[in-house]
């Protein structure tokens, strides 16, 4: 055999680790799509869980503080100053995030 023929035959032989390489297909494509999606969903859940816990903790501490100050005189002054009869109670507003769970 001539040297060029041997080189040509060696180039056609499969690489010894070719069977270990990931195969492209439906399973490999699903894995490439699912892993980042699951990571993103997990991170979003963790952030929302953390924010929710912080809001509930802050809401509970404010509730304790305000419960000590809720006297009939304070409530009457609040209703008068915030014009509750005219504009409605701001505690029931959609923007009152801390009051949503109550």
UniProtKB/TrEMBL annotation:
Q: Where is this region: Disordered?
A: 1-22
This protein's source sits in the domain of life called: Eukaryota
Q: What is this protein called?
A: Uncharacterized protein
Q: Which organism is it from?
A: Xylaria flabelliformis
């Amino acid at each position: 055999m001539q040297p060029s023929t041997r080189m040509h035959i060696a180039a056609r032989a499969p690489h010894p680790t070719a069977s270990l390489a990931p195969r492209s297909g439906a399973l490999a494509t699903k894995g490439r799509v699912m892993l980042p999606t699951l990571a993103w969903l997990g991170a979003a859940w963790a952030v929302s869980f953390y924010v929710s816990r912080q809001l509930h903790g802050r809401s509970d501490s404010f509730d304790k503080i305000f419960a000590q100050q809720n006297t009939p005189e304070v409530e009457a002054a609040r209703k008068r100053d915030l014009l509750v009869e005219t504009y409605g109670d701001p505690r029931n507003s959609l923007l009152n995030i801390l009051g949503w769970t109550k």
